[in-house]
Amino acid sequence: MESRIAIEGVELDLFSNTPDEQVVRNCERALARGLPELDLLPPTGTPVCICGGGPSIEDDATEIFNRFKSGHHIMALNGAHDWLLDRGITPHSAFCVDSQPQNAAFYQRPS
């Protein structure tokens, strides 16, 4: 599915490998669990390092580790979570942005 959204004047094209109807059902089921939801917090000034799970992440391993040691907030997307843990970096947050069931394998050691 393809969608277009605008956030503060920036337009993003979004592509999903999951039909919109399934995404809506997934969101409804997640909300029905009654778990805490993310709050909108004021800016902290802490730099954020967003790590995707593609093969090129290996090229930036030293840079990511240095940012982690410097106090950056490390955010893992999909398969980057366990990759970071394997390198001594515990991400501050992790997001799976792909709703296919097999992607649960990205989080073998939830931190």
Task: Report how far the terminal alpha carbons are from each other.
Answer: 31 Å
The rounded Rg comes to: 16 Å
Report the biggest beta sheet as strand number plus sense, adding barrel if it closes. 3 strands, parallel
The SSE order reads: EEHEHEHE
What portion of residues belong to β-strands?
15-25%
Description of the structure:
With 111 residues, this protein is α/β, with parallel strands linked by helices. Helix content is 26%, strand content 22%. It contains three helices and five strands; from the N terminus they run ββαβαβαβ. The strands form two sheets. Strands 3-4-5 form a three-stranded parallel beta sheet. A two-stranded antiparallel ribbon has the order 1-2. The longest helix is centred in the N-terminal third of the chain and has 13 residues. The relative contact order is 0.14. The mean pLDDT is 84.
